[in-house]
């Protein structure tokens, strides 16, 4: 194989891997932030449950206070029953007492609903509290793993960039310029394999003479359609026929 063709093939492999590593490195901060946000949301939800439970308790205390006030009014009205002088006054006072008692029952129903709500909130609080430690450990482990991957990616990219300089130094100035020009024009893909007479980058059939030259891998040729540098890899012949048992032949 032509030395410069071999170098541009390796150079593209290095460039593609460097681009992939760069994407991975650039995406890691967002992944870490996403994990931290998940934990923050979990903790925030727990804090909201605590606030709801505290508000529930506060509401029940207020409702208990309302019942005491009404019960005091009822007791006062009952004392006043002995002081009324007419049946109309007695009926009016009795009706007022019944109205106040109805208010107490309504408030007691509301308190019961609040108690049921508090039980449900407390249940979720306990379940979340049991999960919080494991969630913190999971997020910490995932972040540590991502940071380790990031460091490994940085190290690999640094080695590849050093190798890239070595490979690039092995190219002539004209080939280096050609490679960079095609790479910029073709979104990073400057080199393409030829297979069965086709440029695999653009799927255009090569002219027979060009295909024959490409198959030698001894000259730098560019695709007449997409402009990429071409190289040829000979495909292994397809295996046909059933395998024979040597023992069977020997006994035949």
Low-pLDDT regions: 243-252
Count of discrete alpha- or pi-helical segments spanning 4 or more residues: 5
Quick check: average pLDDT? 89
In the CATH classification, which architecture of the largest domain applies?
A: Orthogonal Bundle
Order of strands, widest sheet: 3-2-1-5-4
- The radius of gyration computed from the alpha-carbon positions, rounded to a whole number of angstroms, is 41 Å
Predict the CATH topology of the largest domain: Helix Hairpins
Shape: rod-shaped
Give the class from helix and strand content and strand pairing: mainly alpha
Give the % helix: over 70%
Largest sheet: 5 strands, mixed
Strand content: 5-15%
Can you tell me the CATH class of the largest domain?
A: Mainly Alpha
- What order do the helices and strands follow? HHHEEEHEEH
Number of domains: 2
Question: How far is the N terminus from the C terminus?
Answer: 47 Å
Q: Give the total of beta strands.
A: 5
Features:
5 helices; 252 residues; 5-stranded mixed sheet; mainly alpha; rod-shaped
Report what the structure shows.
The chain has 252 residues and is mainly alpha-helical. The chain has two domains: 3-169, Helix Hairpins; 189-232, no CATH class. Helices cover 75% and strands 6% of the residues. It has five helices and five strands, in the order αααβββαββα. It has helices spanning 3-81, 87-169, 173-185, 208-216, 246-251; strands at residues 191-195, 198-199, 204-205, 221-222, 229-232. It has a five-stranded mixed beta sheet with strand order 3-2-1-5-4. It starts with a helix and ends with a helix.
């Amino acid at each position: 194989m032509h030395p410069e063709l071999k170098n541009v093939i390796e150079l593209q492999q290095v460039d593609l891997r460097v681009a992939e590593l760069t994407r991975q490195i650039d995406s890691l901060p967002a992944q870490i932030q996403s994990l931290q946000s998940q934990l923050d949301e979990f903790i925030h939800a727990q804090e909201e449950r605590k606030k709801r439970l505290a508000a529930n308790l506060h509401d029940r205390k207020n409702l208990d206070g309302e019942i005491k006030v009404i019960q005091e009014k009822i007791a006062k009205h009952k004392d006043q029953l002995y002081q009324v002088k007419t049946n109309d006054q007695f009926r009016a006072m009795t009706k007022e007492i019944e109205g106040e008692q109805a208010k107490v029952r309504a408030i007691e129903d509301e308190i019961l609903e609040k108690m049921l709500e508090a039980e449900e909130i407390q249940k979720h609080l306990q379940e979340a509290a049991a999960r919080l430690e494991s969630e913190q450990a999971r997020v910490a482990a995932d972040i540590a793993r991502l940071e380790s991957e990031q460091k490994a990616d940085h190290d690999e990219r640094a080695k590849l960039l050093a190798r890239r300089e070595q490979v690039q130094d092995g190219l002539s100035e004209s080939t280096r310029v050609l490679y960079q020009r095609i790479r910029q024009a073709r979104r990073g893909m400057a080199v393409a394999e030829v297979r069965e007479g086709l440029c695999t980058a653009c799927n255009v059939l090569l002219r027979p003479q060009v295909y024959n030259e490409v198959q030698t891998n001894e000259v730098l040729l560019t695709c007449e359609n997409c402009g990429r540098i071409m190289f040829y890899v000979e495909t292994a012949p397809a295996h046909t026929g059933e395998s024979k048992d040597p023992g069977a032949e020997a006994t035949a």
